[in-house]
Amino acid sequence: MHVPLFAVHLSDGALATAWLASGFAGLVLMLAFAMWKVREEEIPRIGVFTAAFFVASSVHIKLGVLPTSVHLILNGLVGVVLGRRAPIAVAIGLALQYLLLQHGGLNTIGINACIVGVPALAAGALYPVFRRLRVPAFVRGVLLGGGAVAGAVVLNFLVLLLGGKDNWERLAQLVLLAHIPVVIVEGAMLGVLVSYLEKVKPEMLGSRRELPKLDAPTETEEASR
Q1: Which label site among 8, 57, 64, 89 has the fewest CB atoms less than 10 Å from its CB?
Q2: Considering the entire predicted model, what is its pTM?
C-alpha cells in the first residue's frame, strides 16, 4: 500500500479504524473547548492565523537524503497567539489542505488535528507560565515553537507506531529524523516573533491579557515612592 510521506499529515489507509474514530472524538472535544464563548473580535485573528497555518503547511520541501518531505507547521505560533482557540485554526487549515490540495486524508483529519492541535494547546497554556517565571521572551519562543513541532512529530511517530494498519516503524523513524531541522527553524522563528511582538504589539499574544504587567510598576508601588 502506498502512503505519501507528507510530513506529519497522515494519509487515508495508514491507520486502524479505532484510531481514526478516536481522532475524530478528540477533535470534537478540542473544538468544543476552543469554540466556547468565542467573541466577535477574536474572529479576524483566528482567520489570519488559520491562513498562516494553511499556507505554511502547504509548502513542501523535499529532502534528497530521505524519501519524505517536510514543511513548517506553525502550531507553536498558533498556540501562543490564539491560546485555546488554536484547534479552530488547525482543524480548518487541515480540512482546506485536504479539500484543495489533497494533502493528508479525509478520514485522518481528526487524528491529524489532534497531532498538531494538542501541542498547540500546550504551547498556549505554557506561555503565561513561562512569562510568570520570567523566562526571557526569545527563550520562551524557542522553547514553545520548537517544542510544539517536536510534540507533533513525536505524536505522529507514536500514532504510526501503535495504530498503523501495517508496520510503519521505518516510516515513523524517517519522519521523526526529517523534522529535526524544522524544530530548530520554528523555535528560532517564534523566539524572534515573541520578542518583537512583546515590544510593539503585546495584545497579539493571546495569553497576555490574562497576565500582570511584570515589566511595569504597579499602582501600589508608584504610590509608595
Answers
A1: 64
A2: 0.83
